[in-house]
Amino acid sequence: MSSLAEIRSVVTGGSSGIGLAVAQRLAKRGSVLIIGRDEDKCRAAADSIGPSASYAAGDVGQRDQVTRLAGVAAERLGQVNVLVHCAGFLRSVGTGDPLDKAADAWDDVINTNLTGSFLMTQALLPSLARPGGRIVFISSIAAYTGGSGGSAIAYAAAKAGIIGLTHGYARSVSASGITVNAIVPGFIADTGFTGDWPQERVNSIVAQTPVGRPGTTDDVADAVDFVATSGASFITGEVIHVNGGWIFGS
């Protein structure tokens, strides 16, 4: 990347939570395209950021929509410097669920969290800067803990798969000057995923977290911002834990 001011970014799942915090941060370094399924939320997110942000509504888990979204990114941004995969969806799969219910939940979660990340990466690779392109995947501590009480089995599997994607793409594209890294958030308090958790549960997680507090979306955005810039050009294939040390107490 020749200049931080020239960064052009695509953030999937950028209309809320971690994705919105990441989009806000990257918009300070250039232009950002927010992608999400809800057009109204995407529009509101882009409007809140200002003229450096635009949006495109679509489902990254659907192949035909990914082709369209990649076309929008190429048209709006031209060459893409940074691709951040924040699109996420949580639907519980329990060991006692009937097969049909479990299979439907599995498909929904895997398509959004894992397949969507793969499809968007494949579709946007031709548009990524060489050298200087950055791909950042958002995984989850669930990849290591197995989810919450075992009920988020599909989510944990998808987020573990994200780590595999990170390593696979890092081996495949780093020689062309594109770095590929994963961020692993722990408990992030200010998101739709965790906003309705009982205080008892929050207190229990904080008690297991060595830094003694919940994470914030800004904590994750800080990490993404670092690996997305020229100062991280020799960092690729890394899995960066942003969980205050909860990984040790989980």
Walk me through what this model shows.
- It contains 9 helices and 7 strands; from the N terminus they run βαβαβαβαβααβααβα.
- With 250 residues, the chain is of the alpha/beta class.
- The chain has a single domain, classed as Rossmann fold.
- A 7-stranded parallel β-sheet has the order 3-2-1-4-5-6-7, with helices on both faces.
- Strand 1, helix 1 and strand 2 form a beta-alpha-beta unit.
- The longest helix is centred in the middle third of the chain and has 26 residues.
- The relative contact order is 0.15.
- The N terminus is likely disordered.
Which helices and strands appear, and what pairs or packs with what?
Layout: E1 7-12, H1 17-27, E2 30-36, H2 39-49, E3 53-57, H3 63-77, E4 82-85, H4 99-124, E5 134-138, H5 142-145, H6 153-173, E6 179-185, H7 199-207, H8 217-227, E7 239-242, H9 246-249
Parallel strand pairs: 1-2, 1-4, 2-3, 4-5, 5-6, 6-7
Features:
disordered N terminus; alpha/beta; seven-stranded parallel β-sheet; Rossmann fold; 250 residues; 9 helices
Roughly what percent helix?
40-55%
Distance between the termini: 38 Å
DSSP strand tally:
7
- What fraction strand? 15-25%
User: Looking at this structure, what is the CATH superfamily?
Assistant: NAD(P)-binding Rossmann-like Domain
Count of domains: 1
Main β-sheet, spatial strand arrangement: 3-2-1-4-5-6-7
Low-pLDDT ranges: 1-5
Tell me, briefly, the overall form.
globular
In short:
This protein is of the alpha/beta class and 250 residues long. It contains nine helices and seven strands.
